[in-house]
Design goal:
mainly alpha; about 140 residues; single chain; about 70% helix
Length: about 140
């Protein structure tokens, strides 16, 4: 089985490395001329070994750190944020529950009032038309 370093890289792999190099330059890890040299080398690289050589001295963690890990690390380093966020979450849940209950109560009230209106108007004005026989003046 061939080693990873000798396998041929795809265009998508090259673009990922270029993005990683640009992120490293944005963080101040690479100078502009160094970025140009490494991007050129990454775009002309044919194997994973050549691609890995362009980012070998850069930390992996900075380029692949996700937002959720950053948020978790922030909460762990500042427990007061968690303490402050708990009441906010509880208030949001209470407001959502109140809005839901009010909307359900309003729908129930409209349903009852609507049915009451149908009863007050009389049978035959709402619902399917029933024929009990032909009468004068009755819709045929």
């Amino acid at each position: 089985m061939a080693r990873r370093g000798s396998l041929r890289a795809s265009d998508a792999d090259r673009e990922l490395i270029v993005d990683r190099l640009r992120a490293a330059a944005g963080e101040g890890r690479l100078a502009a001329h160094e970025l140009e040299d490494r991007v050129g080398a990454a775009l002309t690289a044919r194997t994973y070994g050549e691609l890995d050589a362009t980012v070998r001295d850069l930390p992996v963690r900075g380029a692949r750190r996700s937002r959720s890990r950053w948020a978790l690390a922030t909460v762990r380093s500042h427990p007061l944020l968690l303490l402050a966020a708990t009441p906010v979450v509880l208030v949001v849940v209470a407001v959502l529950a109140a809005v839901t209950l009010v909307s359900l109560a309003l729908m129930a009230a409209l349903f009852v009032l609507g049915r009451r209106r149908a009863v007050m108007i009389g049978a035959g004005s709402c619902g399917p038309r029933r024929r009990y026989g032909r009468r004068a003046g009755y819709w045929a």
